[in-house]
Design goal:
The complex is a heterodimer of chains A (147) and B (406).
Chain A (H helix, E strand, L loop, with lengths): L2 H8 L6 E4 L2 E4 L22 E5 L10 E6 L14 E2 L3 E5 L4 H12 L4 H33 L1
Helix pairs in contact in A: 2-3
Chain B lengths: L5 E5 L7 E7 L10 H11 L20 E2 L10 E2 L38 H15 L2 H6 L12 E3 L9 H10 L3 H9 L2 E2 L11 E2 L5 E4 L6 H6 L5 E4 L5 H4 L9 E4 H11 L24 H6 L1 H6 L21 H7 L3 H15 L10 H46 L1
Parallel strand pairs in B: 1-5, 5-10, 8-9, 8-10
Antiparallel strand pairs in B: 1-2, 3-4, 6-7
GO molecular function (chain A): structural constituent of ribosome
Keywords (chain A): Ribonucleoprotein, Ribosomal protein
Family (chain A): Belongs to the eukaryotic ribosomal protein eL28 family.
Amino acid sequence: MSQQVLWEVVKGNNAFLVKRNGLTLSTDPFNNTGVQTYSSTGFISKNAVGVVPTSGKVNQINNINLVAKKSTKFQQVDRKAKNTQSVYASTLAVKHGVHTASRVIRKRFGTSRVGLQKAALRKLVKLNRANAVRRRNELAAAKAQKK
Amino acid sequence: MTSVPLVSVFSADDSSKVTAKHIPLPAVFQTPIRPDIVSFVHTNIAKNRRQAHAVNPQAGMQHSAESWGTGRAVARIPRVSGSGTHRSGQAAFGNQCRKGRMSLPIKVWRRWHRRVNIKQKRHAAATAVAATGIVPLVLARGHRISQVPQIPLVVEDKIESYEKTTDALNFLKRFGAFEDVQKVVSTKVVRAGISKQRGKKYRVRKGPLVVYFNENAKLLKAFRNVPGVEVVNVTRLNLLQLAPGGQLGRFVIWTQSAFAHLDKLFGTYRYTSIIKDGYQLLRPLITNPDLARIINSNQVQEKVQPAKTTKVLHEVQKKNPLKNSKAMDRLNPYAKKQRAAAVAAIKANTKGTKKIKKNKALKKASRAAYNKVAASLNDATKAAVQEEQDIKVKYFSVQKGAAQTE
């Protein structure tokens, strides 16, 4: 379905829309900027990558999932696929470091949609940093408890 | 659409098993999405379930109140006749008065229901059905479909024979629809407002809609008690259920026979509907709404003129070339070399001159002379001081001598 048509339906009201303090924000997992705009609203586009934080244990290196939007042409889940699949997205847990994740993002977008690409990468970096801090704190707390 | 999209029918017992691999999508699902039609039809059809109500026609008017007229230092509003009670003499009848009747009291013959043109209603229903097959729209409506194997979800007719709620629940769990049911359960809230005293205590979200075909199906009872789930027969598809609140994209679970019946119900683009007599599905205004693709297509790009680049005539703030070397370089590229040459020339000119080395001997001699002068000054001061001392001593001794002699 064309992104333009879907946008006309969805822009006024959708489940991810949050209007607060004069701001129009979005909780769409495929939206890396947080603001609801036509280009950043990933769930209506054909290809989008969402960088999503997940709750996880301390031992997990990165509590980040990459959620890649699937084309909605044939909306069926591929059970043979390696990554966690759903009708609209395939999820990749960022386990092998931020660099591999950023390569996934770059490959997805190629030379097009630089703005979206940058937004995804930016979010990836920020989440990674926040995660590192969190992990450091948790480990320190665990150490202190042990003592 | 050159290629017809295909859909699989899933086995009721096992969500990984597919009983019919590729069934063509009924033409309804290709109907253009028309939120404007749906919105219009929905707002009107939603009024049709209203029950007539009215205010008691005599409310506030059961007095023999009369205005006291002018000259009594009171407002001219009708006042309650009689005496012996607080009520007498109080204002009555007006909408502004306490205990008065409301302005424009509601009558039972208010126009509660709206009729909508049949064609519009059918177009709306068709669009709503189409929207149930578009994943982003179902997501936008807020359904939790991350575990659902396929949209549109078509299941074999076996579920129509479910009698027990446990069967229904297990079926929903198997097909990832339970997440949506859980959402319904967890977001059940006590309604704000008076309605909670009028029988509408809770606000409950909408979950999946199960659509069946065979009239003898027992699944209505099985799904009845599952919160959020609605069950409806294909022949009686309701816009208020397909697009609740006028919002397209309900999560629908079709049975195989119901799904197959859609072509007969709504017709195709080749044949008009059999059941909706003479109804032809809405045709899109633009067959290819993908603007980005149109713009980037070869056909368009060939004809299009090259993109205009913005010409910058001058910078926003004027820089003085006589003071700003970079600005000067922009005007006269040779200026940089000139400046470098000037610097080099200065360096070259000053190359021969030696640095003045201080002569050590000269330094010593001058120091000695200085010391001499300083010493003589010192002696002079010393001598002066001594002289003063002598005078003092002489003076005092003379005095002493004088004292002594006396």
